[in-house]
Backbone:
């Protein structure tokens, strides 16, 4: 079980790094939106790891981050950009 938790946490960590890079590059709405999709996957992996290792603080943090990521997906991939 420990090997599974370790693998999940590594996937969460690496995908979080990739997502942060995508968002920080500011390469347009589409890239940023997909960065939030990857962030969501990372948060889900962290949640799985938190549940399996019984880490309430990590789980709570990633529930909040997942909600923020879903808002980012809505903002950058679903909602139409306002015309100025």
Residues:
């Amino acid at each position: 079980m420990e090997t599974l938790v370790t693998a999940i946490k590594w996937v969460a960590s690496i995908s979080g790094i990739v997502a942060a890079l995508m968002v920080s590059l500011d390469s347009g709405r589409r890239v940023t939106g997909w960065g939030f999709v990857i962030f969501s996957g990372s948060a889900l992996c962290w949640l799985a790891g938190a549940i399996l290792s019984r880490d309430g603080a990590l789980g709570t943090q990633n529930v909040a981050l997942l909600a923020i990521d879903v808002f980012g997906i809505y903002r950058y991939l679903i909602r139409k950009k306002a015309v100025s």
In short: The two ends are 53 Å apart (CA to CA). The mean pLDDT is 95. Residues 29-53 form the longest helix (25 residues). The helical segments are 2-25, 29-53, 56-78.
